[in-house]
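ESCALATION

Customer reports they have been waiting on this structure for their group meeting. Please prioritize. Original submission:
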Amino acid sequence: MVTQNEASTLAGTTLGAGKETEANGSKICLYTSNMTHIFQVLVTQAASPSEAQAQWSQYEAQATSAIAQLPSGGPTPTLTPITGLGDRAESAALSASIAGQTLNGNAVYLLKGATFLALSDIAVGSPAASGSALQTQAATSLARLP
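Update from on-call: job pushed to the front of the queue and completed.
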């Protein structure tokens, strides 16, 4: 879905080889750089497009609830709907100062048919991949889906 070179270009730094794993029915690939950048690719295949839409709505409600419970004055992600990318898509952005370190993050979440794809970059002390660059990569990755 995303090559090591693509992830490194997006993150603006050289990332190590991807480490693949599976969790809760999702395939995950992590690219890291001394834990100052964590670039994640997550793919989940639902049984049907309607099941995928229902899962999206469920996870969206859980995320909204979790955001509402964050302490006031703390970091709050910004969620923005995206049009023209898959059947449904959103971006998320976060920037915060924690224990004297700047934490930046951007992500794109999209649904195409029964497939869910998430691309995210979290960076400590440097910018994360831009939201627009992640959207462009998401379109490229979407074209690679079977």
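Sent to customer with the following note: The longest helix spans residues 49-68.
Escalation resolved.
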